[in-house]
Design a protein that fits this description.
It is a single chain. By secondary structure, the chain is of the alpha/beta class. It is about 30% helix and about 15% strand. The longest helix has 17 residues. The radius of gyration is 27 Å and the shape is globular.
């Protein structure tokens, strides 16, 4: 359709029909027997309103979606097609590493390719929109949804936001989204959902406007500038106002300052939750507040469908507000080409051909290997050499297929390569390697609830029996590989935890193994940064695998035996203990910074733990070593119109080829407001042969020096700046320059 045809369609729709387009229903409304007696009754809506709904979430499978689409269009007064949406967070059937792990790759192009494959598999399976990327900045490891973000850094998150949107949506020239194998992206959660107080899900967020603008908003803006078709509101309050009813946030910032013109959808039941928050008396007032804030689509509540017409008729809302929201939804459907082809790419044969195909699995294997972070490698115990002798792989993750994280809704254990399968595929037989669970994954008394209720544990044998045979195996082994970690449902939505350690049954196993064998390599599976102190103390090597996805076991084998070298860097700080969180690199100095002298208690210092984290942002080892020269500038003084270049020479000082991510950090040494101790401003991945060196040059421009000054103007201020270039955020490899004021 052209724009005039869309306008004609809108003008011909009744108010009731228009409001129907704003309603999103869940898959349960399309189950034959449960429609009117189950979810419809809970929402207080009837069959006519269901027939006029504009979109559906969490229906999977091409044939089912085509069937629902065909029936719905027959019943819809103007035969308007439905939009089908789902959470495709880190893959559809081919599951990639969780987004937090993808951030560790420091490879936006790799992340873009993963999003593109996810889009292709989802599209041929009938879907039109993914609720991704989540670009919330995260700095508190207690919050379970850190696994959906790409980390704690504003600059890196922005690059990943842009890459994911482009990967999902493809070429946006001509503003069309109907290319084969692409779907619409939905930036979430707007805004600042990643900073809940106490790391507790759905909690209040307390940020200054300056922190919001400098740290949190830029990644959303990068995704919007990349053309994201949708944005989702966040559950949290900000400035004591729930985001879904925050007119300043949605109208002034999102649509005004950021120029977003697409569809704004609430998160699940977030409009109705305005009542629970206490800013709406009832669902009717909640509907009014959300519509005034500019929320176009109501996800699975009856607030809009039951109350908007009355609000228009009594003058509390204008029909023009409804029209604007409906037009944005119609335009999205038109961009996807649904008026011409309501089924778009849905094709079960194509889905069978493309989902989990070899090409997609190869990418998943590379992504998994490129996102695992080597945190420790004492005496170069990794990679395991052919002369290593007998190897015992011990731990509940040795043969576990659930390596794909909480939000991989279409992932299955059967489609996932386990560690055992990966090692066997690499050609190592049971004469050299043995496998023992050693313990259960969860403690016996733990009750863990997943997305569909209590997680059941199947135990044919007691933990004591498992432990004894594992200890016996460790005694007879030359090297032990421990496969330990969180359960997938320890993280993800609703996965907030005050204790960020692995289950005690696994820690007990590790301690007992360490008593009989000190050559321990530990692989850690998790959806968040964990407290790793004891694990690191018991292990000669620690490989942080996150939840690596469909090819996790193959990638681990590649890294363990040196077919590939690790190259990932932490995109989120590993705390020394939970008492430090929220902890992140580049905080702010106080008037009494810690000077290393613990005899003086009147400083910004913990009495019982270090101020420094266990492993900083940007940290990660490989199977070689690198040295850095002192940085060199092409000029010491920079004007507002100039650009400055800083260079460093990196040398591979080890014996193996390796990849290093060279990182550039900047500090404004004096500002009208207190400035962070450093911020990432650039990075470059380089691969060097043993003894090879390479010069890496970064460009510094005036816009990289800007911040919100004491008057809340976005400017740069003249003065001295420090540049740091190294292999992680703690580098002290520094040089300084001066920014001159305009003449």
């Amino acid at each position: 359709m052209n724009q005039q045809q869309l306008k004609n369609l809108l003008e011909d729709m009744s108010l009731e029909e228009k409001i129907g387009q704003l309603l999103q229903l869940s898959n349960s409304f399309y189950e034959d027997e449960a429609v009117l007696t189950g979810p419809a009754m809970q929402l207080g809506i009837g069959e006519k309103q269901i027939n006029e709904a504009g979109s559906v979430l969490s229906v999977f499978g091409a044939e089912q979606i085509k069937s629902i689409q065909e029936t719905a269009m027959k019943k819809q007064p103007h035969h308007i097609p439905l939009l089908f949406m789902a959470d495709i967070i880190n893959g559809y059937k081919t599951i990639f590493p969780i987004p937090l792990a993808q951030g560790c790759s420091f490879q936006p192009e790799l992340v873009k390719k993963c999003a593109s494959v996810s889009a292709t598999e989802a599209a041929v399976s009938g879907l039109h929109v993914t609720f991704s990327p989540m670009v919330d900045l995260v700095r508190d490891a207690r919050w379970g949804r850190v696994m959906e973000s790409t980390g704690e850094d504003t600059y890196l998150n922005g690059l990943m936001s842009e890459a994911m949107v482009e990967g999902y949506q493809g070429d946006r020239s001509g503003e069309k989204l109907d290319q084969f194998g692409h779907i619409s992206a939905c930036i979430k959660h707007f805004a600042a959902y990643g900073a809940p107080e106490a790391g507790r899900e759905y909690n209040n967020v307390e940020l200054s406007e300056r922190t919001l603008r400098e740290d949190y908003l830029p990644a959303y803006k990068k995704g919007i500038d990349a053309g994201s078709a949708m944005v989702m509101t966040s559950f949290n309050t900000l400035d004591h106002i729930p985001a879904t009813g925050n007119k300043w946030l949605m109208q002034d910032i999102l649509r005004g300052e950021m120029g977003f013109e697409g569809v704004l959808i609430s998160d699940w039941a977030a409009i109705e939750e305005l009542v629970s928050h206490g800013i709406a008396e009832d669902r009717k007032e909640a509907a009014r507040l959300a519509m005034e804030a500019g929320v176009d689509m109501d996800m699975v509540t009856g607030c809009y469908i039951n109350h908007l017409q009355e609000l228009v008729e009594n003058g509390q809302l204008k029909e023009q507000q409804i029209d604007e929201a409906v037009m944005r939804i119609l335009e999205l459907k038109n961009q996807l080409g649904l008026f011409e082809n309501p089924y778009k790419d849905a094709d079960d044969n194509k889905a069978a051909e493309l989902c989990l195909c070899e090409e997609h699995r190869r990418l998943a294997r590379k992504a998994a290997a490129d996102t695992m972070v080597l945190l420790k490698n004492e005496n170069d115990i990794l990679p395991i050499q052919e002369t290593a002798g007998k190897i015992a792989v011990i731990g509940p993750y040795g043969e576990e297929g659930r390596l794909y994280g909480a939000w991989s809704l279409q992932g299955t254990d059967a489609d996932t390569v386990t560690i055992k399968e990966g090692i066997e595929e690499a050609g190592y037989d049971n004469d050299q390697i043995v496998f023992y669970a050693g313990s259960s994954l969860l403690d016996e008394d733990e009750k863990l609830y997943g997305f569909k209720g209590l997680v059941k544990q199947y135990r044919e044998r007691s933990n004591e029996d498992l432990l004894q045979e594992a200890v016996h195996a460790a005694k007879g082994a030359d090297t032990v590989v421990m496969a330990l970690g969180e359960h997938a449902y320890h993280s993800g939505e609703g996965g907030s935890r005050a204790d960020i350690t692995i289950p005690e049954c696994q820690m007990h196993l590790l301690r007992e193994i360490a008593k009989v064998n000190q050559n321990i390599i530990t692989i850690v599976f998790a959806g968040r940064p964990l407290d790793l102190r004891e694990i690191a103390d018991c292990s000669k090597a620690v490989l942080y695998a996150w939840f690596p996805g469909s090819e996790g076991g193959s990638a681990i084998a590649d890294l363990l035996f040196g077919m590939q070298s690790p190259s990932a860097k932490l995109s989120m700080t590993m705390p020394y203990s939970v008492g430090q969180v929220p902890v992140y690199y580049g905080g702010y100095t106080s008037g009494r910074p810690f000077n290393g002298n613990r005899t003086n208690r009147f400083q910004a210092v913990y009495q019982d733990i270090p101020n420094e984290p266990l492993y900083p942002f940007g940290y990660g080892l490989t199977y070689t070593s690198f040295s850095y020269s002192k940085p060199e500038l092409d000029q010491q003084v920079m004007s507002m119109e100039d650009e400055l270049h800083v260079s460093v020479t990196v040398t591979n000082t080890g014996k193996r080829t390796g990849t290093e991510t060279v990182q550039l950090y900047l500090r404004d040494l004096k500002g009208s407001t207190v400035r962070p101790t450093r911020r990432l401003k650039g990075f470059e991945r380089i691969t060097l042969e043993p003894g090879e060196e390479k010069q890496v040059t970064f460009k510094i421009t005036e816009d990289m020096l800007r911040f919100y000054d004491i008057h809340m103007d976005y400017v740069s201020e003249p003065g001295e700046f420090a540049l740091f270039i190294g292999g992680d955020s703690a580098t002290q490899n520094e040089i300084r320059f001066e920014l001159q004021s305009q003449k």
